[in-house]
Design brief:
The complex is a heterodimer of chains A (about 100) and B (about 325).
Chain A: H1 4-10, E1 12-15, H2 17-21, E2 23-26, E3 29-34, E4 39-44, H3 45-56, E5 59-60, H4 61-68, H5 79-91, E6 95-98
Antiparallel strand pairs in A: 1-5, 1-6, 2-3, 3-4
Chain B: H1 8-16, E1 20-23, E2 28-33, H2 38-45, E3 60-66, H3 71-74, E4 77-82, E5 91-92, H4 96-111, E6 115-125, E7 128-133, H5 140-148, E8 153-156, E9 159-163, E10 169-170, E11 176-179, H6 181-189, E12 199-202, E13 205-210, H7 214-218, E14 225-234, E15 241-244, H8 247-256, H9 261-264, H10 266-277, E16 280-286, H11 289-306
Parallel strand pairs in B: 2-3, 7-14, 14-16
Antiparallel strand pairs in B: 1-2, 3-4, 4-5, 6-7, 6-8, 6-9, 9-10, 11-13, 12-13, 15-16
Classes of the chains: A alpha+beta (about 100), B alpha+beta (about 325).
Chain lengths: ~100, ~325
């Protein structure tokens, strides 16, 4: 049997229209304008790199952690840290989870 | 004819009658008053502005007058009427000018939503501007006044007005408000500083105003492009330090420093994002004014010679 945590680790993530809509990229991260709430979200470099990776194609936290190992500003991001960041960004409406069937 | 060249009697008559119209660049204000002291004070502070020969649309109309009633015999007070409303409690009669200046600033902050308004000083030299956003007490006005008295063009002390279409900085050429020790610092800094009277015991302590110089008034309709955003912080006894602030963080600091960022929504987001793209951002900590000016001049020269303005379109991947 698979636990919920194991299932969520395997889930794939993708960026939403909110990330694609309006943003500025700077050397230390990005700012994103949420057109629904009119809030401006400030993202650090690691969160921004995660979104940029997901923009290329959707993937799970483990794949993202692997892809980011060589990235400046987020070189030692463990899988659980990537997952925590993804869940935080999901609350902001920037990413969405895709359940990957077993 | 400039306001400074107008006979006082004519100025008093205009203030009491149709009102004195002053074009500050971003806004045009009509001032009415029958207070006997005001004409002379305005003549000193607004001396370089042209005297309006014909009445035009004014963004703001203010009337400064004595409070009527029995109270005037106990403790004379003045009140500011803005387009028929009374936004403030009356002030002591001897603080007519501070009330007028604060009242006009309030009007600008309340009404000028065709631009992104940052709480900042702005100076420019050789076509490249520095934006000095700050919290009260950070030394922004002192620095702005000293730069202006050192040959920089003065664009604003209180309002960094960012044009929404291209993030250019629009002048809001109004007197520079100084508080407490800053007044004597600027008086000692330059004999060319034209200061109005000092008003002690206001809610901000002693305040005085520095008049905008003739060159800055003459260019009050000429926008400028920013090359740097410098967050100044005065602290007694510290050595001068200039530290770069990463731009995403600077964006957040500037947005928090704005009068109307949230109100303008996507328009201010784009204007701010574009502004931050075209500048470098720094934190300046200082205690010695002369040293801070020298560091800013060096920074400006370095950035100006290396910056190629690029409007940097909004990243959009629809």
């Amino acid at each position: 049997l698979e636990t919920a945590a194991e299932g969520s680790k395997r889930d794939s993530w993708l960026v939403t229209a909110a990330w694609r809509a309006a943003r500025f990229r700077y050397e230390d991260g990005a700012v994103v304008f949420n057109e629904r709430t009119w809030e401006t979200q400030l993202l650090n470099e690691a969160a921004t790199r995660i979104l940029e990776e997901l923009e290329r194609r959707s993937r799970c936290a483990a794949e993202l952690a692997q892809a980011l190992t060589s990235s400046e500003g987020c070189s030692n991001l463990a899988e659980h840290q990537v997952l925590a960041t993804l869940e935080e960004m999901a609350k902001l409406g920037l990413v969405a989870r895709q359940h990957r069937p077993r | 004819l400039r306001i400074g060249d107008t006979p006082l009697s004519a100025l008093r008559g205009q203030l009491a009658d149709q009102g004195l119209e002053v074009d500050f660049g971003l806004v045009r204000v009509r001032i009415r008053s029958d207070l006997p002291t005001l004409a002379e004070r305005l003549q000193r502070l607004y001396g370089h502005y042209p005297l309006a020969v014909e009445s035009r649309f004014c963004d703001v109309s203010v009337t400064l007058q004595r409070v009527a009633g029995l109270r005037r015999h106990l403790r004379a007070q003045v009140q500011l009427i803005v387009d028929g409303t009374l936004p403030f409690e009356p002030y002591p009669a001897d603080t007519d000018l501070p009330l007028l200046e604060w009242g006009m600033n309030w009007c600008i902050a309340q009404r000028c939503h065709h631009v992104l308004l940052l709480h900042a000083g702005v100076v420019e030299r050789a076509g490249a501007a520095i934006l000095l956003p700050a919290l009260p007490g950070s030394g922004k006005s002192t620095l702005t006044a000293a730069l202006t008295l050192s040959g920089w063009r003065f664009l604003a002390d209180e309002f960094g007005a960012v044009r929404l279409s291209d993030s250019a900085l629009l002048p809001v050429v109004r007197p520079i408000g100084l508080k407490n020790e800053s007044i004597e610092v600027i008086r000692a800094f330059s004999a060319e500083a034209v200061l109005g009277p000092s008003f002690p015991k206001t809610h901000k302590g002693t305040v005085a105003h520095v008049a905008a110089n003739a060159a800055s008034v003459a260019k009050r309709h000429e926008p400028a492009r920013a090359v740097a955003v410098v967050f100044p912080k005065y602290a007694a006894g510290v050595s001068t330090e200039l530290e770069e602030v990463p731009r995403a963080r600077a964006f957040a600091k500037l947005a928090a420093n704005s009068f109307n960022y949230e109100l303008l929504g996507p328009k201010s987001f784009v204007a701010m994002g574009r502004l931050i793209e075209q500048v470098r951002c720094y934190r300046l900590t200082y205690s010695r004014l002369e040293e801070a000016l020298a560091w800013l001049a060096d920074l400006h020269e370095e950035l100006r010679s290396s910056t190629v303005h690029d409007d940097g379109a909004l990243v959009s991947a629809s």
